[in-house]
């Protein structure tokens, strides 16, 4: 019989971002107070899971989200570079405002190829690194469950890849809320299915996403 293993892809919680910029790979962006509450809720959601391995993006917000999950299972949090946020041309800017206005001519060369995308790391590159990290997490957690704390776009690209859907998509239709859990269920190497949960959904009203926009 094949070994049953689940790899949970957890998105980090809300970030303290008073300037409402696209923070991307910038260091030092921590969870807000609400983000800390979100992390506690996702840890509670996974408290009864058979988790034997927890890794997270090295960015502070991901490490902070992973901490209560790992603590509930008496585990350390490993740093996994392959699940880090994707790069973005607009990093450090407030998208749609000031220097981040899409009408600014200096940004136009970055909108020539939506398949890449031109403004950031290619989807195929994100897919390759995420799938490799998931494969290794599945091996470490074989017969049990493993957690990877990452970021919205890399998680969404990994899910679309796992479900054999095109990587090109409408960003407004991503199903990957703050502190959401995308669970990949495997029998051996075979993907059996994908489950999705939003244990922190009660805290979404008023929360701010990665680009400074409010969630509803």
TrEMBL record:
Superkingdom classification of source: Bacteria
Record Pfam families: His_Phos_1 (PF00300)
GO cellular component, one term: cytoplasm
An example Gene Ontology molecular-function term: phosphatase activity
Cited InterPro entries: His_Pase_superF_clade-1, His_PPase_superfam, PGM_Phosphatase
Protein name: Hypothetical, related to broad specificity phosphatases COG0406
Source organism per UniProt: Brachybacterium nesterenkovii
């Amino acid at each position: 019989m094949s070994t049953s293993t689940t790899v949970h892809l957890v998105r980090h919680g809300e970030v303290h971002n008073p300037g409402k910029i696209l923070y991307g790979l910038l260091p030092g962006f921590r969870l807000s107070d609400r983000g800390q509450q979100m992390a506690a809720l996702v840890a509670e959601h996974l408290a009864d899971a058979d988790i034997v391995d927890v890794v997270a993006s090295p960015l502070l917000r991901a490490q902070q989200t992973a901490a209560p999950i790992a603590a509930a299972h008496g585990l350390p949090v490993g740093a996994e570079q392959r699940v880090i946020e994707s790069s973005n041309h607009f990093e450090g800017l407030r998208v749609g405002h000031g220097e981040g206005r899409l009408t600014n001519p200096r940004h136009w060369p970055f909108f020539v190829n939506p398949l890449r995308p031109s403004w950031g790391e290619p989807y195929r590159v994100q897919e390759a690194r995420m799938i490799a990290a998931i494969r290794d997490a599945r091996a470490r957690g074989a017969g049990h469950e493993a957690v990877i704390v990452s970021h919205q776009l890399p998680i969404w690209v990994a899910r679309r890849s796992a479900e054999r859907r095109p990587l090109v998509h409408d960003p407004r239709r991503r199903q990957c809320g703050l502190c959401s859990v995308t669970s990949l269920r495997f029998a051996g190497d075979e993907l059996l299915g994908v489950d999705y949960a939003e244990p922190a959904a009660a805290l979404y009203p008023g929360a701010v996403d990665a680009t400074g926009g409010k969630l509803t």
